[in-house]
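Hi F.,

I've been meaning to write this up properly since the lab meeting, where we talked about keeping a consistent format for the predictions we share between groups. The idea is simple: the sequence comes first, exactly as it goes in, then the structure tokens exactly as they come out, then a line or two of notes. No screenshots and no reformatting. I'm using this chain as the first example so we have something concrete to point to.
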Amino acid sequence: MIEDLAYRVAMQARHPTVLRFGYVLRTETIKRADDFLKNWVELGKGGLVFSAPSRMGKTYAVRQLCASIEEEFPHVVCVSISAETQSRTDRFERTYTTFLQQLRKDDANRQRSKSCDVFANHLLSLCRDASAVHCVVFLDEAQKFSELQWNALYIALNRLERNECGMLVYSFGNEELRNRGELFMHAGSQGIEGRFFVKLLDFDGVCTRQELRDLLKQYDGELQFPDHLWPFTRYFARSAYDGGWRLEQEADAFWSALCDYAGVPETPLKRGFRMQWITDSIHFVFKDCLRAEKEARGVAPEWAMAIERTCPMKIV
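Output, unedited:
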């Protein structure tokens, strides 16, 4: 059925590129973050902070990194939480959402201490259920945490350690997160700064032509939907794909169009192009490929148009 073009056109709304979840692209930044995290987990150290402008793909990266740590270290429990957690379906997120809501209230210190106990005990139960010696906590949108909430995490960390269970916290956020550790230190909160803001790392976008080429290659092979016979590129451009065309071949043209739009030279960039604007442009081109097949015309990606139609003025 999927061989039929009309079916693929009708079902494209369910494709991961349209839904914006269900797949993660590997980049040099994610590989670097993965190496750092695995090294620090081995050492039992927490306090890595990853900072980047919005739309760099941090939230998607957290999912991949969390899964990678769980696979590599059977002796740890990983939890991923966000300052914007609203879910009521997941047991941990329910507990954490209630915890955050309680901290936002102007309660007495005794009530706050009780909330911290509930949170710490929940983490401890997760570790004991899995016979884990460390609880690895990934914080997303960490710049939105208040000092009170950071302090509550610090209290929870100490209570876990008193029960011989380590809590390793790794934070992801926008560029406001860069200043948080220094502000805590000046405010006399050295405990928070020393535990959660040990080392700051940039979370960059796509910085080089070769990195873009490697990213596009993933669409041609390892990213597949609905099964292994249908790499993303083939789903949207079956005739061209079966004839030998690959998205990877568009790397030079795409890089040139990105640099021209951003007004930068075609050389390696310091922070790189933001991931969302790259993936949005690719999706635009894929949609055109599907139309081209429907109209029986050849695939001719117009990257400049794709970038202009999908990106804001600033893409780096």
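Notes:
The radius of gyration is 22 Å.
The chain has two domains: 5-22+206-310, 28-202.

If this format works for you, I'll send the rest the same way.

G.
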